[in-house]
## 1
Amino acid sequence: MFRPKYPEAPKPSIVHVHVPTAVPAAQHSHAPACSCQHTTAPAPTRPAGVLSGLNAGTVGAVVTVGIVLTALLAAVAVTAISVAVAAVVMRSLLASQRRR
């Protein structure tokens, strides 16, 4: 249900092999880098995507961890605001007591 259905890749009917031909010496003055025969890489049968290895359990775990971390961040923010308000109130109380 959660796994995507990939379309079948078309099969190439003709395989093209690139064989370098001899270049006249008048055009290039350098020697070839190697004497091996280079061929093109075969086309992948299925595109490898970033999300190809994920399943429902992995996605659920990532979402759960994200929710827990967001809740912890909110708790820290609320605690910091509460401490700041308490500090302002205490400062105000101490300042008014010194004036008397």
## 2
Amino acid sequence: MELSTYEARFADAVERSFRDDAIRTAVLIDDQFPDYLSMRDAAEGEFTEIERARNIYAFMQGKGLICDVHNWRAPSNADLHLLDKARKSDLILLDYQLGAAGVKAALKILRHLAVSTHFNLVVLYTAEASPKTALTVATAMRGVKPAAGALVPSAELLENAEEVLADERFSTIDAAGLRAYLTDGKTPWVANLGQALNDAQIPPQNVKPLADHVARQWIAELMDDYELATDAELPVGCAIDADQPMWVHCGSCFVAIVPKLPASSTDDEGKYVWGRLGAALREWRPNIYRLILSEIQNALELEAVAHHENWLSDELALGLGLYLLESEEAARGTVSPSDVEGAAQSLIDRFVDIIRRRLATHERISSTAIDLLGARLSNAVGQAPAGEGARLIRARELAHVPADQKVDWHKKVLPSVNAFMVSDAFRGGHITTGTVLCGPGDSFWLCASPSCDLVPREEGPILVQLMRLEKTGTPPEKFTSGEFVVLGASNDVMMLRAIHAKIRQPSLTTLVLPNGTRVNREGEAVTISGWIANGDGLRAASVVHGFPAAPDVAALAEAVMAEGNQGQDTALAAAQEPAPASGSEPEVVAIEALERPLAEPPQQADDQADPKGALPTKFMVISQLRNAFATRFLMAAGQHQSRVGVDFVDA
């Protein structure tokens, strides 16, 4: 297959997946459009684009789409809560100039959609479709954090460079240069600026802060008095050439910037908008992975992927009730909700697994992925930097990363893909097999107890087996050895060694959780508290909760040798005494004693020091391994504990 044929086929798939198969409803937002109830009787003087609204509305209805119209003329009319209900299946046709608010309302709406947790599709329908509009939209959606550190030029430097910065090359907005700054953080004008600074005898180390200052001045001029978001900068891509379909993709939102047809035009306006949206999607060219995710989301939006009516019979539904309610007490509601929490979570996991398995074999998803991947691989391998083989070149082609873009395969790409395949964000209500904890001193631990032992219970304590994880500074030569846990997202990946490189064994310990396995949520932080079951931790548990101390084995042996069975009886009797107060330190605490229910730990005053570590240690819950990887390390822990030392003899 010729490459051009493949590209056309891929563009067809993008247009179909993001537009034809996705859109089921449309919302028209224009201050000159009457709403649906007013459309038939609206006065010409009240709304200037009644006919345009009718044409677009009629087209959407003809496509079988549910359509609504809003005319937000005042800033207070913009209902962002309504937009929160929009999904990938909802097309938003947005006017750029919304009444008294001008462009500000539209820019605020677009930023709101960009930071949402789901994909949104927008047509910005405007008479001002231009590179400037595209850059303005891209900047508003992206946001701009304040300059910090070395990028902040001093007042003295700005004064010295005043003449240089007044040069037309740096005072007039360079659209292509600003696009590079917004999308890739590049400053193409830095060479010219460096030369100008050199001519003005300004030290060259000042070129970076001044180059960034130039971009920020352009942004300030472009945005006028619009207040940009400064809390986060979102990744953005855009096409600003007025001769080609213009678009902006930022965060969770794709915007096609479409010029309004003249009022005198006889074209079908709805068809025109629909076609321009398709053209923008084709020019966008998302990579194959975004396309597959789009197909999955389309299947989910159909809400028939699980075909539950085919298998959720009355008999099964009755049986599921027995599964959730394991006792008569549970059925009468006399037990704590925590007693059915584990069963409910298992049932939800089973339902989700049904959906997952059906999605994995969904015909449209599978055919899109397999057909396009096969078609791409049938083309000749392209060109790439020296040293990159066919595998790396193909990876670039599938990701749509150009050959001239620098890629750090070992330190960036491999950790990123391994983190994606191995771990996920922690979202549960209790820790389980494969949960990763971060303790004091930047220590990391992996829960390596079976999940059936970690179901929530009303009363503690729970003993959790932990595997020590050691943070590594650089990526390993091989991830496939199965020794590492990789966590995080693309820009913040952490590699932790779980299996010792030489002895090929894990390092295990026990965590005592006084109040069970439920986590605490403090804002965005997720925590759990307990004691590491070493000497200090067990002593602290004994001090706080009054567990009896276990006999000191060495002292017991010495007593038996000295006094016979009478000495043994004396030592054992002493071991049954309650643990001493916090002022003294018992030697050992019996783990068996921890099976008793615990009282609430004492409350510590803000100005009171922790007495000998009596209060439990707080651990941050930072990640969750996927089931297959969690099971792999659970088995490694079990194998380590079941080793048998056989007395073979070597020469």
## 3
Amino acid sequence: MASGRQRFSIISDGLPSQLPDVNPDETREWLESLDTVLKTEGRTRARYIMLRLLERAREQQVGVPGLRSTDYINTIPPEREPWFPGDEHIERRIRAYIRWNAAVMVSRGNRPQLGVGGHIATYASAASLYEVGFNHFFRGKDHGESGDQVFIQGHAAPGIYARAFLEGRLTEQHLDGFRQEISHPGGGLSSYPHPRLMPDFWEFPTVSMGLTAINSIYQARFNRYLYNRKIKDTSRSHVWAFLGDGEMGEPESLGAIGLAAREELDNLTFVVNCNLQQLDGPVRGNGKIIQELEAFFRGAGWNVIKVIWGRDWDPLLAKDVDGVLVNKMNTTPDGQFQTYTVESGAYIREHFFGDDPRLRKMVEHLSDDDIRRLSRGGHDYRKLYAAFKAAREHVGQPTVILTHTIKGWTLGPDFEARNATHQMKKLTKAELKEFRDRLYLDIPDSALEGELPPYYHPGEDSEEIEYMRERRAALGGYLPKRVVRAKPLKLPGDAVYSELKKGSGKQNVATTMAFVRLLKDLIKDDDIGARFVPIAPDEFRTFGMDSLFPTAKIYSPHGQTYEAVDRKLLLSYKESAEGQLLHEGISEAGAMGSTIAAGTAYATHGVHMIPVYIFYSMFGFQRTGDSIWAMADQMGRGFLLGATAGRTTLTGEGLQHADGHSPLLAATNPACVYYDPAWAYELAVIMQDALRRMYGSTPEHPGGEDIFYYLTVYNEPYQQPPAPADLDTEGLLKGLYKYADAPAIEGRNGDVPRAQILASGVAMRWALQAQKQLAEDWGVAADVWSATSWTELRREALACDEWNLLHPDAEQRVPYVTRRLEGQPGPVVGVSDFMRAVPDQIAGWVPQGFTSLGTDGFGFSDTRAAARRHFHVDAASITLAVLHRLARQGDVKPDVLRQAIDRYRLDRPIDEVFAGTGQTAESSTGGEA
């Protein structure tokens, strides 16, 4: 540093240099005092004084900025630990039994003739985390309340099964059916938490990494939503999310933590099991994952509790007057801590304590075995209890508990902290014996010599089993446990749907707007109106739903503390603590989190809620398909609205906004019922039936069906016809009904070429124009059918095929689509605003020759007419496709094809055909909905 110059003062928080100093003399005295401490007692003491001052300032609510990270030690010092209310000896025995049975279950499942896989090491590292919760914190549902919502780390499932076995909820036969759900007699156990596969046991699917974190946040937020709207008292419910440190690398794990802090979700606790290992190696070998996560969460506004060291480190830390031990803990990377776990006490003495004589002296009274046994905090029940209790009692912030554990803990040297632990599925006989000895279990060697190691149960009358049952009874019953208490809703009658069934007259109305009109009327219903949960990711105005702002209002736990800039407008932005709309900002993943929480409230809280999540169709299944799959697993109900649907309908937006494939993605989800309605009245019929199926009661499904609906709706306005007097409602709901008979061909006695055109969504208008062109220009009579759901037609046909396969001697079932088209004259052409694979779903069951038209390829920005000509789905292209089929079967002359191409200029460059105009007969309304 140059002589006479002072180092530039870098202030990252608070910026005091921008504030006036009202008492310079007092300020100078404080600074001189700090300088004196530095000179006389050193930086370590000065640092301690500064930290204590910050701590006291925060206690006095001075408002100083929080630290981004703290020392690599426990957040709660020994003197502040609460009294532990349980019997630690009994609880240690319980943990030993569960550890053993979890490992044995996986090991038995991987005998040579079976080999179903599984995970041993994750639960071994997390057993104490779960047991402190099960014995002292997790509240059940037996008293009629919602209880706590516990998201269990997926790879820890064997330990949860092992606990349920001791509780008497599962038998040895169940455990032997691990990962053999249909082949095991009587049914087996799912690999991970899967509610759909075990609907009375699991509540939350958690194995798609990252979804646990974001879904638990939105579950806690939805609990508050229900409470603030006075629908359900969730004030005693707490959400616990168990996560792995490697899992925190998923964007969804950290992506919504700001929401939890912003809405002060002190009903939420993350418990991150930091065993420092991912699936194949260290999480941060050269860094410190706990410190990194602490900085993330503190910066986001969370309460952070670190549980790093067990109680046997407390005396050593008490001796650390110079801070040398804390400094060593701070500077040792995770990869080295992993190595210390597998090395001898002598190695640890030399490499961890040997760098400094003060450290060596600190442990000179300890043997090498004592040093090797110095424990991690995530295995110390008292430390964990203190952390859980502090988290449960903390007010105003969500809490994250960061616990340091060892992957494979107690499983023996071949498992503990090894990089390959995740892939290790079976214990050898020698490993089983060492494992038994570590757990002090009364299992003779002879019992471990056979092919299958035995499960262990201390007996129904043992004090351990009685203790487990007493603790769970005191806390409200067993967990995990899924209970459905919701009663079917009283659904509105036909009147609410009548407006859409009347049509729009001369007014042009897009199907998106038609849906919004229906939703507004449904929300007014006295019986179910309050149960609707409209959800959108920052696009309510785009979809015309700002009309709901003044009445339904936007949910905010803090209400509206400002004057809205548009407050003088009729449709002003209006927030309220009792608001009904969930406005999720720019977060489709967050919107899905709310949708799942709302759509499963019938089981989680015993109240039916009806989520209606509306989004750009391109950004639904494509962006958050994993979350939608989790919704299916969790048996969520409700509506997903793929608005601005289709590859040619959303004019001007371009490639990443042009949806041509979401119906195919929806078709992969067995719980998803998909429709692509063309008309507003079709929407009305579908919505009424959907509410009946999901929220009503039928003999087959007295509690409603565990399905959800995906509806594609469009922003192209056009005149909506009234529902036909003889509407084929059954066919509409099955996926296909005849909409328009072929017009009479003048001058012909009925002997004309015939064809059938099947269309869905906005393609219906192109089909009707093609029907007109075929009749007037080529003398072809074509019937037009509304294919409201290609997917439902396919699923019903597949079910018929499966039945026929297994019943060759019985009368064969004929799919609905085959029965409807059988005997209809002429070839069949199917068309939609999606890629050809969408109508192709029914190709195998169409009895006539079948041609599909669709929008395969990338979307682009242009007029609707130009885009439809480019993809050859417009009326002229449909006309040509029908003529092609008729020519192939000899019903029209081949030269008609060239005439049609020339007439409609189908082989001309698009910029030539549409120069100066963006309209065609079937797309002439323009504008946006």
